[in-house]
Design a protein that fits this description.
Nuclear Transport Factor 2, Chain: A; alpha+beta; six-stranded mixed sheet; 124 residues; globular; 6 strands
Amino acid sequence: MSGKMTRERAAQFGAAWNSRNADLVVSFFTDDGVYHASVGPDALGRSYFGREEIRRGVQAFFDRFPDGKFENLKVNVVGDVGTFEWDFVASDANGKLTRTAGCDLLEFVGDKVSKKNAFRKQRG
């Protein structure tokens, strides 16, 4: 750990999610970090604890949405917390492009992400 999280570094973390490289995404997390995906059986979606579990969760996300990408990323960092607002664009099961609005609540330790808690809007 070195320094503190900056808006620029947080934006790099956000951009890493479009790289389709789970190792790159995980490199931004603390060793004991947590990732709460927006979908799953738990109250906070599906939760992944520690870098190896987070890596599996990120790879599962990439596998589920092979053409998915985040657009219109808005990044805020205030001290040891931050937020992302984004649009996620991906093809559905029928090949139709869908756009989903969402956000992440982030916590930092130094210049690493200690928690990413993802939320998304659901059409219903």
